[in-house]
Amino acid sequence: MIPRVRKITGVPQLLSGGFPARVAVRGEVYAELGHLPVATGGGAKRYATARHLAAGALKSQAPGPLALDALRLFPFELVNAAESMGVTSDLAALGKLAEWGFPVRLDLTWQAEKLDQIRARYRECLANRGRHTFAADGIVVKVDDLALRRRLGQGTRAPFWAAAWKFPPATASTLVRAIRWQVGRTGRRTPVAEVEAVNVGGVRVSRVSLHNAQTLARLGISAGDRVVIGLVADIIPQVLEVQREENHTDGAPAQPELPPIDACLQDAPGCRAQFLARAVHFVSKGGLNISGLGRGRMQMLVEAGLVRDLPSLFRLKPHEVAAVAGFGAQTARRLTAAIGRVGRPQPFRLVLALGIPGVGPAAAKRMAQQFTSLDALLSAGEEDRSGGASAASIRRFFATRGGGELLTGFRELGLI
Fold this sequence. Notes:
By secondary structure, this protein is of the alpha+beta class. The chain has helices spanning about 1-5, 35-40, 50-60, 65-70, 90-100, 115-125, 145-150, 215-220, 270-285, 295-305, 320, 330-340, 345-355, 360-370, 375-380, 390-400, 400-415; strands at about 25-30, 70-80, 140, 160-165, 170-185, 190-200, 205-210, 225-230, 235-245. The chain folds into 3 domains: about 1-165, D-amino Acid Aminotransferase, Chain A, domain 1 (2-Layer Sandwich); about 170-245, CATH 2.40.50.140; about 270-415, DNA polymerase, domain 1 (Orthogonal Bundle), CATH 1.10.150. The strands form 3 sheets. Strands 7-6-5-8-9 form a 5-stranded antiparallel beta sheet. It has a two-stranded antiparallel sheet with strand order 1-2. Strand 6 (about 190-200) and strand 7 form a beta hairpin. The longest helix has 13 residues, at about 115-125.
């Protein structure tokens, strides 16, 4: 990642002027809109929006040169600003960054003393939204005085001295074809609206999450309704409005929310959707991080009967995978090699990959420090409070029949 960031236009290789020994800068990498048609043409990977292009070029293992050429840096904060640098305000700190060679957009930075002035700037930026060389979904209002910032402090998700004023999202109107219930890895069912495909802000949308039964009831949405879809933060599709005509005949009412089904740790009729979601999480970056095995490929392996439970992933043979439609011999070899590279994972990373409710990254890390092994945690028993609620959740999980079978399967493979 670091060598790639050095290639971004606007990231100075050497600073100029009287800069301190340490300069910590916070900023955003974006893609210039003028480069989007070029970077997505000529057989190169296509990106729906400039935001997708920037994220894809940074995360891709082998980004195209045209995509990298489109990237720019928008620095917006000198993190270690101090009076010793001769700055007491954010505006002065940005001025220092500009002196040292960073591409600070001082022309897009204004000071305001009253709320009405901020509102006027917001309306001005919204009106000129399409004139910039970058995509913008709002403005950020910040306290300028650095000493006051330090007194205001930081929240868990954002500083108390800044607020984002978002622009209205891009919208489009379309028809709802059906309301389906999607099963996640924990068995929770989420209502999803299947709509006639529509382009919203450059993104093709055909499915929109309705989040929960409360949202479903509030919208009163059903098949046949015309809806307005917006892109929240220019990324996430969301139903903003249901438009009903007077002569509209109600479609099939949405099903009531169903209770979560029992944990599906194996592929079986009625369990496939949850097992597939669990298996996808197991190999994702938040799990064991097995490259080349996304939802599409995992579904093909499950439907072919090669992945019946999580341990069976580690028994896959290249010739078996190559025989599945959609895989080739080279892809099969790469995939089984990636699975083999997992080796013997740290036990609590394996536990984290299972997606046990209440066991997140922080809890897994804490338990790895408290227990020498998974066996040490399991043998502690419910009466032992070590590890807290997360440890108790793990014990209960492996005490079930399905959890016990998983544990046996992993032991036979030498993973635990």
